[in-house]
Design brief:
This protein has no helices and 5 strands. The protein is an all-beta fold and 100 residues long. It has a 5-stranded mixed barrel. β1 and β2 form a beta hairpin.
């Protein structure tokens, strides 16, 4: 399965770090930065993904470069091949007064 920008995917979360999470969807690996988990600041504990849980997100960028050409934080120190970046907060209306 191939994803496109704008697609809504369900990631099976496979890795969580303090700054991001990664998950699999249709044989592809997605990356969700912690800034994209929630509109709220600080991010509520209830919005922090857990390994094994499904996470619904909207794809906003396809990664068309090799792992060596992508930032180490995106590739978890160069160990994960990432196919797309996604956002949870893009599925929720922006609260009035929320920073972008």
């Amino acid at each position: 399965m191939s994803v496109a920008v704008g697609d809504i995917v369900t990631l099976n979360v496979t890795k969580v770090a303090g700054y991001a999470c990664w998950g699999e969807s249709g044989g592809q690996t997605g990356f969700v930065h912690c800034y994209e988990w929630s509109w709220d600041r600080p991010i509520p504990d209830s919005d922090v993904p857990m390994i094994g849980e499904p996470l619904t997100a909207r794809v906003f960028q396809l990664i068309d470069r090799s792992r060596d050409e992508v930032s180490l934080d995106v590739t978890y120190g160069g160990t994960i091949e990432v196919d797309f970046a996604a956002s949870v907060k893009l599925l929720r209306p922006k609260p009035e007064g929320a920073d972008d």
